[in-house]
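FORM 12-B: Structure-to-Sequence Request
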């Protein structure tokens, strides 16, 4: 289930059910999924989405997902990926600049999980390892014991650029190879998507929240995660990067006793309900 910030239930993703039920819900479908999740398949898809042949898909997506194009730059797009990585129009998003506030890095569906004392978090009754998410780095995983795991899931209708959650510097970056499963919740019932998918990890030293692990997770048909990696200090709300075509996810880890969630985010997450949030929007505060 997905709710907006007012508590209203909104329609489920159009991608749920149907094809994904087939791919992840039976043995034959999972055999096909093993092929579709390989990197070269996503690379082929990326080549097509970067070509002018893909332009015809733009109007279809705008119509099917009811995308409000007044929020975005007004220009001619050269390919579907050019459209997919479009920028916002000036003033379309307001980044909360209160230094005590936790902000969303992207337009997305947010769920927050507790990180347990054994460095796991629980999704739909299944345990997932923070150590695996971080590429096997047990020392780094132990830093976040008892903390919070923020999962921001982006679907095809979302704005696919993302920002830094606070001012600070990048301390460490690493690429973690993997495959490309869909990040749709249906896949989590069968696979450790965040622990197996290709992803990029950046450890941030932030001004207000200490060390934060920021992980971009690639997904089926996402050919590239595009990060900027500034050499010097970044500011809250500065663009960190963007995803090429496909659904994607950002996972952020905060340490124990650093974050207090907004009431609706906490309630919905406890019920395993996703909450729609916007780029730069407040989702919690510093304790």
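FORM 12-B RESPONSE
SEQUENCE OUT:
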């Amino acid at each position: 289930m997905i709710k907006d910030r007012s508590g209203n239930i909104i329609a489920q993703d159009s991608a749920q059910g149907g094809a994904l039920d087939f791919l992840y819900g039976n043995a034959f479908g999972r055999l096909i999924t093993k092929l579709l999740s390989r990197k070269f398949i996503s690379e082929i898809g990326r080549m097509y989405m970067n070509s002018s042949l893909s332009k015809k898909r733009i109007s279809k997506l705008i119509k099917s997902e009811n995308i409000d194009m007044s929020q975005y730059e007004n220009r001619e797009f050269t390919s579907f990926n050019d459209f997919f990585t479009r920028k916002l129009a000036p003033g379309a998003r307001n980044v909360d600049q209160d230094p005590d506030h936790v902000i969303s890095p992207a337009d997305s569906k947010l769920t927050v999980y507790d990180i347990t004392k054994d460095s796991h978090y629980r999704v739909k009754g299944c345990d997932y390892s923070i150590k695996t998410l971080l590429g096997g780095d047990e020392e780094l995983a132990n830093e976040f014991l008892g903390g919070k795991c923020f999962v921001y899931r982006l679907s095809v209708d979302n704005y696919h650029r993302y920002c830094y959650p606070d001012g600070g510097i990048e301390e460490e970056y690493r690429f973690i190879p993997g495959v490309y499963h869909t990040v749709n919740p249906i896949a989590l019932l069968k696979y450790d998507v965040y622990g197996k998918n290709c992803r990029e990890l950046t450890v941030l030293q932030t001004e207000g929240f200490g060390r934060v692990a920021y992980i971009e997770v690639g997904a089926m048909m996402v050919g590239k995660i595009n990060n900027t990696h500034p050499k010097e200090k970044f500011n809250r709300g500065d663009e960190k990067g963007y995803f090429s075509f496909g659904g994607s996810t950002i996972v952020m880890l905060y340490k124990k006793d650093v974050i207090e969630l907004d009431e609706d985010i906490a309630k919905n997450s406890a019920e395993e309900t996703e909450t729609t949030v916007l780029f730069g929007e407040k989702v919690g505060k510093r304790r």
